[in-house]
Amino acid sequence: MEALPILVKSMERSSEEKTLLRNRIKRLRKAVSPEEKQLWDRQLKEQFFGQLPSFLEKAGRDPFKGSPADSIWIYLYLDIRNEAGTLPIIEELWKRGIRTAVPRVEGREIAFYEIAGLEDVSTGCMGILEPVSGSKQAQAVRSLVVVPGVAFDSFGGRMGYGGGFYDRFFQREPDHPKWGLAYDFQMVEAVPQEPWDRKMDLVITPDGITTTGGKI
What we know:
alpha/beta; two-stranded antiparallel ribbon; 4 helices
């Protein structure tokens, strides 16, 4: 008879912790200068492409060793409001012939659509850049997904923005490798977690790569 009240209290405590953490990270993001963002985004790009070749080789899809680039998809987000920046990564992927897709909000779900240039996006839900109408939906169910978040931890934990879009997406398509992208101040000791939260396979920051087992 006591289990339900204990569960409710636990969920309330987790919700309060998430609100406090979201507010703290929001203040820190707001304080990021344009110069800091430019530097950190360049470092994120370097970390990402330092990790990508070995990942693709293990997946048997290495464009740097002769595999057809058009068979490779990477799903990413388009950053807003001082999020960890993806545009330098996306532009380099285009140069390397790797196909990219970004999400569009569709009701309570997100779906990913191919973009090949910035002319393929426009401002959509919540001010986020989204694929324009008529874009081709990507259906690469094992593609790498670069995931945004408020905060991450070294166990692969991620705290999102509260909408549950990525959790529902990964429930629908569970086979995607998941890489978080964050600035160093977004790494915390432990992210408040719910049973439905999906863990990242690794998290990239300007300072390095963090996996569920720690820095590599």
